[in-house]
Amino acid sequence: xxxxxxxxxxxxxxxxxxxxxxxxxxxxxxxxxxxxxxxxxxxxxxxxxxxxxxxxxxxxxxxxxxxxxxxxxxxxxxxxxxxxxxxxxxxxxxxxxxxxxxxxxxxxxxxxxxxxxxxxxxxxxxxxxxxxxxxxxxxxxxxxxxxxxxxxxxxxxxxxxxxxxxxxxxxxxxxxxxxxxxxxxxxxxxxxxxxxxxxxxxxxxxxxxxxxxxxxxxxxxxxxxxxxxxxxxxxxxxxxxxxxxxxxxxxxxxxxxxxxxxxxxxxxxxxxxxxxxxxxxxxxxxxxxxxxxxxxxxxxxxxxxxxxxxxxxxxxxxxxxxxxxxxxxxxxxxxxxx
Length: 338
Known about the structure:
Blueprint lengths: L1 H14 L9 H51 L5 H10 L2 E5 L2 E4 H22 L7 H24 L6 H15 L3 H12 L3 H21 L1 H15 L4 H8 L4 E9 L7 H5 L11 E2 L5 E9 L4 E10 L2 H11 L3 E3 L9
Antiparallel strand pairs: 1-2, 1-7, 3-6, 4-5, 5-6
Helix pairs in contact: 3-4, 4-5, 5-8
């Protein structure tokens, strides 16, 4: 019994800290640091594993998300609002033409507008022409391809469209409709499923393609200048058309309502005096130059004859790109009967 008590006292005495002196301070400091390392290292190992696992999970989640987006866009060909917003934010491509990528959002912009118009028609008629789906897909893709090709040519030829020009055209159309800004925006949304920003984007694409078509067609420019010169020297439109042959087309005695929606041709002719011949007119129809003769004065109708100098270069080059190996579609368009 006495021996056990003695042993306990010995152990307790041994456990008491030794006296710290100048000779033992280094040893004591190392002993304290070693005790701290026992607590520090496990925390370090846990933190690095946590960071590594977080990175792995994040990468896997990102890959799964990208895979889901790819599946919805390129396999399912989703056209919902969410899919459209994703394509607007990411600018992923739907095709490529002459090494110019076609934004998926442009394709959806036109396709969704066409489908909105069809749905509005079916609500009134009760008919459901879903067979038009394939045609609308092809039309939307063609328009998006044309826009992309026009953007490439616009960069090469330093052609730009100002925001002011777009705003002025929209304001002019709104005033002609007699609607307020709010009502005009609502009508645009109902008929085309477009916001005003999307309307401006579509209009900018149209104007850019128009300017490019006129700019690259040097032969049409030359012919238009020649026709205008002959008209100024006193030659009749009939004589000019006969001289030019198949380079131009001649149309007589056109009668249309004032303000007719023909790309601005009747508006420009309406500014002429009877018997006056215009300079070459560029219309928003983007199909050529017009040299017109005003024939009659009327407050409600405009009568005139004209020579048309068609644009051919842009369409011809675009057709070659579509039929050759310079165009690639990243989605498979549905075919009739499939």
